Structure formats: C-alpha cells, structure tokens
Amino acid sequence: MAKILKIYPDNPQENLVNEVIKTLNNGGLIIYPSDTIYALGCNIFDIKAMEKLAQLKKMKLEKSKFSIICNDLSHLSDFTRPIDTSIFRFLKSHLPGPFTFILEANKNLPLAYKGHKTIGIRVPDHPIPQLIVEKLGHPIASTSIKDDDEIIEYSTDPELIAEKYDHLVDIVIDSGYGDNVASTIVDLTSGEPEIIRQGKGII
Hints:
DHBP synthase; ten-stranded mixed β-sheet; 26% helix; alpha/beta
C-alpha cells in the first residue's frame, strides 16, 4: 500500500522529505505535486525503478520519454549538449516555471535514457520537487498522471490519486489540490522555440 505523506509547500517537514529521499534511493516510486499537475517520479539512476515507471505507463522503457526534473539549471550540462548563450538566457527567463524544454542530449545520460537524442528538462516552480531534488543530490525522472475520465484529463485530488495508485507506488505526497493543466512543451533543438504542446506556460 502506498504511504500518504502530507507535505505542504509553506512548511515542508524535513523528516517526511527525508522519507521520500530514502524511498527514491531504495528504488521506490513516488507521486508528487508540481506547479502544474501531480506526477509520478523515481530515481533516474535506478534502472529497476525506471522499468517499473515504464510498466506503470504501459510502455517499454526504451520507448519512454520521461522528463528530468531539476531544481535549477546547474544540472543542464550533465544531460545536454552545450547550448548557446541566447538559449540559456531564454531558459533562465522561463524557469522555474510550467514548461518542459526539449534539448539535445549528450552521451552521459543515465542508463535508462541511453540512445535518446533529446531530453525533456523541467524545473517546476514548486518548493517540494525542488527540495526533493536538492536533498537527493540529483534530478528525478518524471511523467504525468493522466486520468481515465473523458472530461477531466488530469486528477487534481491527491486522495483520489492515492486510491487509484495505492498498490502501484510507494509514496503519495499530499500537498493539497493540484492543477489540471500540464506543462507547455517547447522544443529548443533547432535554436528557436517551437511549441509542441500548449499547456499552462505561456511563451
């Protein structure tokens, strides 16, 4: 059964955040809040956790396109090819924020991402994922939680999310109601912003 941890942005309890970190380091899956929707996450360096995440999304790991959640832009060089100063300034002006930016990947990607030519980078404007990444010491892999409902595409109620994923994840972070609009996906591989999916973020 998934453990529900009530962690609120204005005063996140350190012991609860540490429990999340321990779970990630042990290969567990978490559901966490962001500045857009609730999302699934795991340790990018744990191949078994990544495989579990892919199974949960009913896809093969090599076909998956899980975003990488960072707490700032300092991790960019770990995963992406060198970027122009103009692109870096563009990223800096929009992050943290409700965007997923597609960039050219380098050859140092974690094992689960090997062979990927591009990578999606997120820096959510939300203290909880930022704190998790900071305490973990490296980014996490992430994918959105989609709802089966035809009207509401994304679940916003953490209690309902916890019920649905009770036996599928290890921790659900309850941070209050989430949003129901996903991030805006922007492709920057050509050097010019190209919107792939319009979401919450406005360019």
